[in-house]
Each structure stands twice: as structure tokens, then as C-alpha cells.
Design a protein that fits this description.
The protein is of the alpha+beta class. The chain has two domains: 16-51; 81-182. 18% of the residues lie in helices and 33% in strands. The protein has an eight-stranded antiparallel beta barrel. β1 and β2 (95-101) form a beta hairpin. The N and C termini lie far apart (99 Å).
């Protein structure tokens, strides 16, 4: 009588898939799930990009964004408009900065654009929230022609109304500061 744990007996093969076949099926399922996630992410990114206003052509304003459901962020109303000026950081040359903040700007919403013409760099601004020096914005969605080596997405663009009709600008990542005035 064979031992109950002896698998070398002459038992007939069991019907079903071999362990190698199960491994192959598992690999295919994982690949299909990965492809599904990749395609869904790509579709979602395109869907969100299509819902975000495109950058304006030279000399035109971008379309006004619809106000977010939660309403305009605190302190944003003093920043609405087109602003331009010069900012300079430690050991950096002065650079022109142009900013446009749209009415209805709220946390997490596309709020306007920032342009550094000398780089060149033009990207979409979204409100992150209050910061020590004003309201912090994130920049992304760079317009074609922006220098990819210099134009990096992320937060750190801080704006604050100065009370004398201007806007204080700070780039927390470089230390650049300046005062922007209403653009003509």
C-alpha cells in the first residue's frame, strides 16, 4: 500500500491546468489590468485637460472659468485681473512676470496663467491655499513652446495684494520676489 504523502504513485493525472498554465494566465490578467489602468488614466487626463480652458493666444484673455461650487477663495478677489512686473531672486537676473487671475478662482480650481516671457514659460495656475506670504498657487499645464528644462510643475507661486494697487509676487522655490502692477 502506498504511503498517503507519496506523490510518486501511479495515480492518474488530475484534470485541470498545470501550475505553469496558471502562472501564464495570472501574468496575462495582471497585464490586462495594467493596460486598463493606463488607458483609464490617459482618458481621464485628456478628459480633464479638455475641461480646462486652453491658454490664450498672444493678446487675448483666456476664457473666464466658472466659479467653483464652494465659491471664491478668501483674498482672491483682490488678485483678480492681469498683472505684470519684474521679480528677482538671490544671484539671479531680473525676469519679467505676467500673471492673470480669473474671477471665481477657488481652491483646486484652474485660476489663470503665469508667464515668464524671457524663459519662455507659460503655465496654468491653480489655487493651493493660504501661505505665510499670501495665497499659494501651483503651476502646471505648460503651453507648447515653454522651456521644459526650466518650466517645472509644482506649487510655490505666492501672490498677495499690497494695498496700494499692486500684487506682491514670491517664488518660494527660488526666493525670487517682485511687485506686479495692473497690466495694460
Amino acid at each position: 500500500m502506498p504511503h498517503p504523502l507519496d506523490t510518486s504513485s501511479t495515480q492518474p493525472p488530475r484534470p485541470g491546468l498545470s501550475p505553469g498554465a496558471w502562472a501564464a494566465i495570472s501574468a496575462i490578467v495582471v497585464a490586462l489590468i495594467g493596460a486598463g489602468v493606463t488607458l483609464t488614466t490617459a482618458w481621464w487626463s485628456q478628459h480633464r485637460a479638455a475641461a480646462t480652458p486652453a491658454p490664450a493666444s498672444q493678446g487675448q484673455s483666456p476664457p473666464t472659468a466658472a466659479p467653483p461650487a464652494q465659491g471664491q477663495g478668501p483674498g482672491v478677489k483682490d488678485l483678480v485681473g492681469r498683472w505684470s512686473g519684474v521679480a528677482q531672486g538671490p544671484d539671479q537676473p531680473a525676469q519679467r512676470i505676467e500673471v492673470e487671475i480669473l474671477a471665481g478662482c477657488g481652491a483646486g480650481a484652474a485660476c489663470g496663467w503665469i508667464t515668464v516671457p524671457d524663459v519662455p514659460c507659460r503655465g496654468r495656475l491653480s489655487l493651493v491655499g493660504p501661505a505665510a506670504e499670501g495665497l499659494e498657487f501651483q503651476v502646471d499645464g505648460f503651453e507648447p513652446g515653454s522651456d521644459p528644462k526650466v518650466c517645472q510643475p509644482g506649487a510655490g507661486e505666492v501672490l498677495r495684494a499690497t494695498g496700494d494697487g499692486g500684487v506682491a509676487y514670491t517664488a518660494t522655490y527660488s526666493g525670487a520676489k517682485g511687485v506686479l502692477r495692473p497690466a495694460r
